[in-house]
Amino acid sequence: MENFKSFAEKTVVGPLRPFTAIVGPNGSGKSNLMDAISFAVGEKTHTLRGKQLRDIAYRKPDEESSAERSRTCQVSLFIVDDVGKETCFSRRLTPSGSSEYKIGRRTVTHQVYSKSLESIGIFNRARCNFLVFQNEVQNIANQSPKDFGTVFELASGSGELRDEYNNKKQLKDNAEENVVFIFKKKRGLISERKQYKRQQDEAQQYHKILEKLEECKSDQASFRLYHMNKELKSLEENLSEELREMTLVKTKTDELETAIDNGRKELASMNMEKTVKLRRKQSTAAESEKHRPDGVRILTQLQRVRSRIRAEEKALEKARDEQRKHTQELASLEASHRDLSDAMSTIEAELVDAQGTEVSRENIREYKNLKDSVETQASISRRELAAAERSRRLVLQKKTTLEARRDQLKAELEISSAEISTFQEGVERSKSKLAAAQGAASTLRLELESMREEALNRKRQREDLEKTASDTSESLREANANTAESAKEQRFQEALQSMKRMYPGVKGAISELCKPTQRKYREAIALVFGKLMDAIVVDNAQTGEECISYLKEQRAGKATFLPLSDLRPPPLDENFRRLGGTVRPVLDILTFRQEFRAAIQYAAGSALICDTLEEARRVRFGPRGVRVKICSLDGTLISPSGFITGGVSVLEEGATSKWDRSEIEMLKKRRDNAVRQLEELPGPSEERRRESEAVQKELDSRSTLAQLQIDLKQKEARLSRFQTVAEEAEQALEAVEGEFTEVESTLAERDASVALIRTGIETIEERVFTDFIKRANSASIREFEETVLQRVESLEERKLSLKQQLSKVESHLDYLRSKDVESPVKRLEDSLSGQSDMVQALQREEQDFQQNKEKRERLLTELEDSTRSIATRYETLEVEQTRRKAELTNLSEIFGSHRKVVTALETQVESQRSRQKELLRYYRMEQIKVRFNRESEDGTVEPFELSAVETGDLPQNVVLDVTSLNRRQREASTSDARAEFETKFANQCESLQNQLDKLAPNLRAPEHMTDIEQRVEGINREFEDARKEASKFTRDFEEVRKRRYDLFMECFNHVAENISDVYKELTRSAAYPMGGTAYLTLESEEEPYLSGIKYNAMPPTKRFRDMDQLSGGERTVAALALLFAFHNFRPAPFLVLDEVDAALDNLNLARVSGYIRRRAADLQMIVISLKDFFFEKADALVGVLRKMDDNKSNILTLELMEFDDSQDEADPLQTPSAPEARPRVQEILS
């Protein structure tokens, strides 16, 4: 071997010994040696375990597939004959993938190669005499008698005569049939000749009656044809009218279909335009929605700034009022101060004048001196008095200031309280408005969310409904395409629906009452039901009879009726549900109402369904085969008798679609329901309008809410500011009141102190001024002062009063001058100026926003109008399309009714024409003379013979001649009148025919006598020639049959004679020295090669049983016995066995190995084995091992003859024990 399969390198095996065993682990390449021998002897590729010849060449693990085309291999077989001559048979796989054969060094053809192998006993057609492949022994034992006969034909060579045998048998059978046929023909001619002699005498009388009969038949034919033509013309006129009506309807239908197609396109275009508009509208609305917060922001800011401006304007006005009041008050105080200052100057001048004029200067001087003395004496008291008065004035001044401050704080507190009250009311109103606005905004937001959710739900519902409508419409289109019914089926369905309406007991067809649980079972169940698929289920037999009468009256076809009251189907065997795999009864994969169970069970029977044909075969033909109807999903049906019909092609067209009718009705209901619900839902434009209004309301509420919140915050801020001012004023007032109380207390103390000091001073004055008073004639110094110094004192008091007023005015002036009333006004004016600028900027921004908003709103309005216009046009067109479709449906129904009428009329016309043709053909065949006239082009009329018509169609210019018919016959318009004339014609013809039948002469008998004699003479010669030819073909056939029989029986007899001895030798033991029995039996003794051969083997102590009842080892031994017997008939130089010991136990191994060892004396045995108990008996071992790194097989050999011992010739009758029967070869192998 070179490059063969796993033997990569050049490998030499042998020389092989008489008994050589090939051993090695699984996957090492042992069977590749078997394939190498098979390849060398010219076996085909499929026996070499390859798909193509290139597969047998060695391929490296890393070799690319491109190198596969250039691979080659070669196997050479060296055979040595009895005289020692060695012959080399070589077969080589060329790079092109073909085989090259050589004998020695000479290249030969495959035919020469095979002939050379056959010359040494190697026959490829019967390779069982030299090659036994793995698992082939079991296959041989399990073969049928017919297969055994085929094996014997191959082994004997009789199979080569099969074609010659069949050809010559066919020639012989044809020749014998020809002889029989000619003999029958000859006998008929002789009988015919006798009849002609009897018929000559009756000819004359016959002619007379025949003329009358022909005339009667001619009149009858003319009568029939005339009225048939009238009826045909009427039908053709009706057909033409219906065709014209149908053409008009078809034209309208085509116009409507064109309009519907155009409308569909226009709808699609409008839908596209609408989608574009909606997208643009959505983008514009989204942009508006995007910029809407900007508008709210601008409006809010503008309102906030304007509110601030209004507040600041009020504050500015108030500040200006305060400034104006402050200025006026300041001016008034300054004027008062000037008046008081002028008054003070006047009083001081008057005081100086008064002091100088009222008393004498001496008195005044003395008074002053005394006064000075008093002042000196009371200097301390004066100082104390001055200090006390000064302190009192300060306290009094402080009291005056505190009074003014208290009055001012009270005024501020009153103003703040009034503002607080006002703003508190405003805050409460704003809070109330804000709460109401918040509630309204929340309500609007919830309504908007609810509306959006409802809109979303409606959108989803609309999408679901549109999808449902679309899907159901698509399903209906597919279902209508798949359930196209013929006119016959339509009539049947119409009749079934009519019967359901007329007879309540009609339940429906089987296909309507049940349904497969899954679609994949439909074809198989339809095959199981067969014609019962259309069987109609009724309640009782009476209803079925009434339905049959109805079908006959309506001529609606035939139907099978299943009365539920009379059906008693056998119960289903529960074991069928436990067969396993995918096998299940038909009843279990059908859904139906229990009241129809009897009918469904009757139709389904005990039939089974399975997925694959292999599983169906297993269930039907397996060990526990069930004799019921079994069907696979691919449509292959196995009948209870075992016949197989394959494929869904045997199904009646449209059988499975009958289940779709109920689904179609459900789909129609679903579609109509979806369309109705879609019509009830508001349109998308209405949805968008509602949502837009709700959004606008919600946005307005947001804006109002924001404005109210800003206003509330401003009012709360001002309220807080006034509350702070009021609190500060109250705190300041409390402090001023406390301080005022303290000042009053201090002032009282000061007054008391001043009074006390003045009392002391007055005491000193009285003591000092005592003499002066006397001289001045005054009661006291006080009186002097009152009388003399009254004016001075008055002026002093006025001066003091003015001084106090002036001090108060100056204090108030200081307060007013210290109060800043310009800054608030300036600050408010600056703020107002900034707020005005901000308002102008916001107004410009608002103006821009409003312009853009108006532009977008105009665009949205335009888009909305355009969308609404498109929607209106779309809805109008949809309505128009619906109307068109309804009109189309109506026209289709009208067209269908016209088509039914046309079909019926065409059928009637065709039937009438067919009847006319049949009549004409019948008249022509019966040679009934029907009178016709033919009008030529020149207007002349001449008779026309019916015999000139070949097809039954009359030429256009040929008309029926009805001159032989009277007026009553031509004007018979009713069926009764025509039937009366038909009866008369028939009776007259029958009477004449009866007369002719009684005579029955052969009118041309004299003419035929000469012809019949010649024909009889010719048939005699033809018969003799046919008989000689049949004899010759019979001899040729018998010769081939004998050769085939001899070859077959030679092989059979030889094998039959040897097989018993071989089997006995293979089964003999010490306990059973006679061994078993094996024999072959022919099923046909005459021609055994056309029948089969039965092979039976009975091991020792076993009774007779079929081969498949034996154990695996027993079948293997029986098969080996047959193989060895075959080899004895046509011995080959060697016998190769591949793992034939796989099913053998140790006892049978010992027997078989012993037998092989004994046969090895005259036959080279090559055995592939895995059992050491077997191969240890060999003369040599060939070990096969595989190197896993390069996937190559190598060969090791071991000679065992040098270890041979006496057990080689052991008595086969001795049963070897386990340890004693094994030679020490096992020790060597281990």
Automatic annotation (TrEMBL):
What ranges does the record give for the region Disordered, renumbered to this chain?
Answer: 313-337, 455-493, 1207-1230
Q: Which residues form the SMC hinge domain?
A: 504-620
KW Cytoplasm (keyword) present: no
Q: Which residues form a coiled coil?
A: 158-273, 705-746, 785-862, 1009-1043
Molecular function (GO) terms for this protein are:
ATP binding; ATP hydrolysis activity; DNA binding
Per UniProt, the ranges with Basic and acidic residues bias are 313-328, 455-477, 1221-1230
SUPFAM superfamilies linked: P-loop containing nucleoside triphosphate hydrolases, Smc hinge domain
Q: Does the keyword Phosphoprotein apply?
A: no
Where does the UniProt annotation locate this protein? Nucleus
Q: Which GO terms describe its biological process?
A: cell division; sister chromatid cohesion
One GO cellular component term, please give it: nucleus
The alphabetical list of record keywords is:
Cell cycle, Cell division, Coiled coil, Mitosis, Nucleus
Which Pfam families is this protein grouped with? SMC_hinge, SMC_N
- Major location (coarse): nucleus
Family membership noted in the UniProt record: Belongs to the SMC family.
Name by which UniProt lists this protein: Structural maintenance of chromosomes protein
Naturally occurring in which organism (per UniProt): Rhodosorus marinus
